Amino acid sequence: MSRVLAVTQGHIGRACLLDKVRPAGAHAHPVHHAMIELDGPCHEYQVGEASAVLAPRRAVLVNSHELHANLSVGQGKSTILMLYFSPLWIEEQFPGLPAYVRFFRHGSVQLGADTVELAQHLARRMLEAAEINTADVQALFGELAEHLCHQYGPTYPNRERPARSNDYRIRRAIALMQEHLEEPLPTQEIAARVGLSRSRFFELFTACTGLSPKHYVNMLRLHAAVEYLADDPGPIAELSQRCGFGAQSHFSKFFVDQQGFTPRDYRRAAVPALPRQHGQADAVHP
Fold first, then answer.
1. Looking at domain 168-270, which of 2.40.160.60, 1.10.10.60, 2.60.120.10, 3.40.50.620 is its CATH number?
2. Contact indicator for 60, 54 with CB cutoff of 8 Å
3. What is the mean pLDDT of residues 114-142?
4. What is the DSSP string of 174-201?
5. Which CATH number fits domain 3-152: 1.10.220.30, 3.40.50.720, 2.60.120.10, 1.10.150.130?
6. Where do the domains of the chain lie?
7. What are 157-194's pLDDT values in tens digits?
8. What's the whole-model pTM score?
């Protein structure tokens, strides 16, 4: 099982340091994010339709709502810094950037020595700091985030519109998914509510979002789970219901499949000061 070592979060977004020993299944995030390997064997990823390699001195860059999967993990443990960038922070850094511009141009990049040094410095401070969200940790996170996003992010002259379409029925379908996260609606019902056949709904939804309806709902569930685990000290069984899972074991298995570590492990690192009397066993059941 992979292990979360430390998590810091704030205005810039969220940084998660982990020891990774198992691959993660296909998933997406509603924010842009980057993975930097600090030490360990190579990993093979698929980002959208392209292959990407994560290795020391390399990073994998993933755009928001982009399906990606960790296809293979080399022998041994890898220490990886995962960075998730807040949309508000991105807007501050790139004012006026059109929504249709692809943010990261490449899925895998070779990092310069200065970027690697910044990432290593941030990782050390995250492990050493008594209080993980201190100003100095956030300042390091911000410096690394600016370095990555401005070096590998969008170039303003390149404003070609993407092939994805924009349809009001799909926007309504997404709103329905968000409104009914605790008790998810069947895909057939969502399609009917927006006036589409099931097959046409799948076709149009994928054309508009780049994701299948199932992957999109899973993205919403995962994002909500991460937010709840960091901000809400309530029982994990209760949080799992709020993410649309009838049983905590199903939620835990979903979280491990998507992230590689358990909900409890993430909460322990994200909120080290949270009282643990609310904790429920979250072992993954076969």
1. 1.10.10.60
2. yes
3. 90
4. HHHHHHTSSSPPPHHHHHHHTT--HHHH
5. 2.60.120.10
6. 3-152, 168-270
7. 544 545 566 789 999 999 999 999 999 999 999 999 99
8. 0.83
